[in-house]
Each structure stands twice: as structure tokens, then as C-alpha cells.
Amino acid sequence: MKKIETYRNKKVLVMGLAKSGANAARLLQQLGAFVTVTDIKPFDQNPAAQALLDEGVRVITGEQPLALLDEDFALMVKNPGIPYDNPFVDKAEKRGIPIITEPELAYEISAAPWVTITGTNGKTTTTTLIAEMLNADRAQGKAYLAGNIGIPASAVAEKVTPADTMVVEMSSFQLAGTTQLHPHIAVLTNIYSAHLDYHKTRANYINAKMKMVANQTADDYFVVNWDRDEWQQLAQRTKAQVVPFSRQNLTHDGAYLEDGTLYFQGTPIIKADDIRIPGAHNIENALAAIAAAKLAGQADNAAIAHVLKTFPGVKHRMQYVETWQGRKIYNDSKATNIVSTEVALRSFPGPVVLIGGGLDRGFTFEKLIPLLKDHVHTMVVYGQTKQLMADVAKKAGITDLHIVDTLDDAVPVALRESRPGDVVILSPAAASWDQFHTFEERGDRFIADVNQFIKENPA
């Protein structure tokens, strides 16, 4: 860990706890800052705040009083999920208080180079593949996963050395709060429309994503999906060396698919049919990971191929759960938007029983209709968006439609309505926050419900 003096004797406000906020508070205290934490959850229901108070951190819980900003704070470290139009954040901005997110703090103290991954879809799979590849045949140091993948970057940055590599998944929420972030290798998997309730416009969403490359130089690399003109144009925003990857174009200066084989700069790496995880989107994820691993200089072709042949996929992303009476069951809870569910449906030709629903963000699901027609024979919908999803199911001609209230209700209905040979998949096309704190919690509940059903209904 770099010993920086930036925050010594400075008053710093940490807004919002969870894992990243608690780690940021502890790190700032270690760096000599006078730390105040404010979190909306009441103190008696807030173990993280209780622990920090025991460690000498000032905590204010149950509210976020605007008067607190009258104190002379030099910095706010904001929980990424809190939007910038929040009254407390808005007032801080108007007061001129710099606002960052926890990964920015982690970058400042990291002694290891960063490989940073963002995009609308494929982030977690690509991030995990890169780390696996960099560790497969590594002589010195270690590649560490961190960031939006569920591991606070600040906790990892405290322990890494210059011989290590930090492989950091970053969301648009996290990237919006960065100013100094400077990854040696930046990877953009793709960009579709998402999180517009937070960012308000697609342009704002893209600008947040592209903050990842803002500080790169000609000594760095920007690995970018080359399958859409829009994404190619984003490459003009960086000073880094652009390394494309593509499933559709022969980008011989990068990673590409040709005649069923994945290549990097003209060298064959692996046949597409040998990659363990299914789906055309995972070809793209593999190409992105190959490019990043090769540019990092830590992985040879045999090690990369071995990872792709054996990697089973990440939890909650088209995760195989179980086979019950000839039905294969998959957990795709990380499908928090329409595009992710489209990807899932394309990966399974059918027949599919689809469980969908979740937080209502004010959009409809019309884009799913063609895929529902081609792949799905039964739908079970729940949550805030259940009626919206039911409407598109009817338009797609799905007559075996079931509308329930909760995921716990949906699972047994979906399994009872399925037939031998079906794929039963939770791919919600919506965020989890109407009924769960995170998509991980939603996916874990789905798995528990499946296991309970199978226990009560053995083969």
C-alpha cells in the first residue's frame, strides 16, 4: 500500500456504508483523516456503524441531516448507488465539496497496476476470466479480483504489491465518482441503455463509463468491443493504444473470431466449441479477456486456453443450478436489464420456462417479444414489473402465463409447469430492489427455492 498524506488531518465524510463505505472509512482513518460516517439505516439495525463507532469513527445514523454539510469537510466519499440528485449530495456539490467513490480512494493507495473492466453486460464474467488467466501460470505476484464484483477495491488495494495486478470491475455508478483513476489496461465489453433512472440520459451513462479512460496515456491500452460503430467511435476518447476485439469483424490487431477459432493478433488461442460456458456473448467475453491477459504480459496461450476450457461461469450469470426430472435449471439473477435477458434467451434455443420481474424503472419490455416468441413457451412473472411483463408475454402469444407476487411464489409454479427437456431460467430483465437488497440475494433465494422444491418433489 502506498503511504499517502493526502487525507492526513482532513475532515472526510463517508456517505452510505455497506461493504465499500465501511472499508473506505477504516482506510481513511488509517490515512490520518478525521472521518464522519452518515448512513440512513438506524443505529440499532446497523452493525457496520456499531463496529465503526467502537473503532473510534464518528457515526451519524438514521438520517442524513443537511446541517452536517455546514462543517468544513474536505471530501465526501459517496456510496455509488446514491444518485447525484439526492438532496444531501446535491447540497454537497453546491458547497463545492469534492465527491468521489471508494474505488478512486483504492486507486490512490494501490501499489499494483490496474486492469479495469466496465460495460453494460459481461463485466463480471470478463473480469473473472482475466484474473483466472493472469493467475494460471504466473511466476511472480498474483492477480486480485476487486470492485463491483463484490469485493471492495480499497480492501484489496491495502495488501497488493507492485508484483501483483488488480483486476477491477467497475460500474457506471463507481466510475462517475473518479478523477485520478488511471488503469494500465481498460476494457469496455459493450454499452447499451441501462441505469437511465440514475444517469437520466444515455449520454450521461456513456460519459460515466468513459471516465475509465480519461487519464490513460499512450503507454496504456483500451480494449474495446469493435462490433458496433458507436463503440468504435468511443475509442476516439482515449489517448491509449486501442486494441479491438470482435466476434463479427476480423480485427487482426486485436482479438477476433475467425472460422470457429479465437485469435489474438494472428495467433490461434482456442476453438470456440472448446469454451465451456455457452452463448455467443461469452465468445465476446472470452475475446476481451484474451486481449487483456495478453497485454498484461502474464499469461501464455496454453494457460489462457486451459482457463476457457475449464471455467464454469460466475454465480448468478446463467449459472447452472440443477437438473430435475429432465429440466435444466439456471440462475441468471444478474440479468438486471432487458439486454441481459435477451442474451440469456439467445443462449438457449428452447424450449424455455422464463421467470421474470423486479423493480419497475419506468420502461416496457417490448424488445423481448421476438425472443419470447422463438424461445419461450411458459412465463412466470412477479414483482413490480409483473403486469408489464405479462403484457409482452401476451403480445408474444404465450398462453401459459402465470402472474404471482414474489419470487418464492414463482419458482414452484415454473417448475410444475415445465416439461422434460425444458430449460427453466430466472432471468428477470429488471433490478432486484423491489424485493431484495442485491441481485446476489435474489439469486441465492432462487437457488434455495429450487432446492426446497426438489427436496419436496424428488425424481
Automatic annotation (TrEMBL):
Record InterPro entries: Mur-like_cat_sf (IPR036565), Mur_ligase_C (IPR004101), Mur_ligase_C_dom_sf (IPR036615), Mur_ligase_cen (IPR013221), MurD (IPR005762)
Mur ligase central domain sequence ranges: 117-293
Function statement: Cell wall formation. Catalyzes the addition of glutamate to the nucleotide precursor UDP-N-acetylmuramoyl-L-alanine (UMA).
Lineage: Bacteria, Bacillati, Bacillota, Bacilli, Lactobacillales
E.C. no: 6.3.2.9
Gene3D superfamilies noted in UniProt: Mur ligase, C-terminal domain, Mur-like, catalytic domain, NAD(P)-binding Rossmann-like Domain
Pathway: Cell wall biogenesis; peptidoglycan biosynthesis
Cell compartment(s), UniProt: Cytoplasm
Name this protein carries in UniProt: UDP-N-acetylmuramoylalanine--D-glutamate ligase
Keyword annotations of the record: ATP-binding, Cell cycle, Cell division, Cell shape, Cell wall biogenesis/degradation, Cytoplasm, Ligase, Nucleotide-binding, Peptidoglycan synthesis
UniProt-listed NCBIfam families: murD
Record field: catalytic activity: UDP-N-acetyl-alpha-D-muramoyl-L-alanine + D-glutamate + ATP = UDP-N-acetyl-alpha-D-muramoyl-L-alanyl-D-glutamate + ADP + phosphate + H(+)
Any Gene Ontology CC annotation: cytoplasm
Source organism: Schleiferilactobacillus shenzhenensis LY-73
Keyword Chloroplast: no
GO MF: ATP binding; UDP-N-acetylmuramoylalanine-D-glutamate ligase activity
Binding locations of ATP: G119, T120, N121, G122, K123, T124, T125
Short name of any one Pfam family annotated for the protein: Mur_ligase_C
Family recorded in the similarity comment: Belongs to the MurCDEF family.
Enzyme class: ligase
